Amino acid sequence: MVKMAELTGHTSRVLFMTQSPNGCTVASAAGDETLRFWNVFGTPEVVANPAPKTNLEPFASFSRIR
User: What residue spans do the WD repeats cover (predicted)?
Assistant: First the structure.
């Protein structure tokens, strides 16, 4: 656990923090009634060739009797 950066902007203590689903942005809410968004991890890398979609149907690998 090493301190990477110090984010300043709230004038009161931070009450809540959460990370965005893409993992790049952090949102913080403080007692000063402000909500701030912090771009602390940069932009995500773009994947050139996305992985092929798998069959989402359950038991797709089993033979069926109809």
Answer: 7-40
